[in-house]
Amino acid sequence: MTGSAMRFCPFCGGPLVTRHWEGRQRLFCPACARPLYQNPVPATCLVVRNPAGQVLLVRRSVEPQKGLWCLPGGFLELGESPEAGALRELAEETGLDGVIDRLLGVTIAPNAEYDTVLMIGYRVQRYEGRLQAGDDADAIGWFDADALPPVAFDSHVRFIRQAVGEQAQGPCAAVQRLEKMSRVARG
Ligand SMILES: [Zn+2]
Description:
It is a single chain. The chain is an alpha+beta fold. The strands form three sheets. A four-stranded mixed β-sheet has the order 7-4-9-8, sandwiched between helices. The protein is built from three helices and ten strands; from the N terminus they run E-E-E-E-E-E-E-H-E-E-E-H-H. It has two domains: 3-36; 41-171, Nucleoside Triphosphate Pyrophosphohydrolase. Bound molecules: zinc ion (ZN). Zinc ion (ZN) is lined by residues 9, 11-12, 14, 29, 31-32.
């Protein structure tokens, strides 16, 4: 629930007001005399590629962006590690059991329901199982990275480009870039 939609304190049930507190406008409960801190909601997604280099996408059967395609993934459950949550979503939506080999990155993305999502992207190196769309996906397919269908989320497009670009440059390209940057920084 976004801040603008939240009207009552989740701790005491009293009405919330908006107050300037610690550097920004926040929801505040006068009865509890405390602000209501709101944070991004963490979610994961995975870039899975087949031996031909195609990217695995699922078609969303739920809002937001129902009918558009996206990477397999979803929201973390309480107490769940990001890697475990990502692989659980992969199994639920595609039927595949995967092995993560690296973190692609972490970014934020706007979300209609939660305002801001913290999106964690992983690359899957190996997988097994039989493809079957399930859970929040009603179709599934492999797509060439330069011929993607409409993708629901910009953050997913960025992770796809990153994974495909890194593979094209070789596995050490990102490390080499960092080393080059640090050499430049040292002068
Ligand atoms: Zn309260």
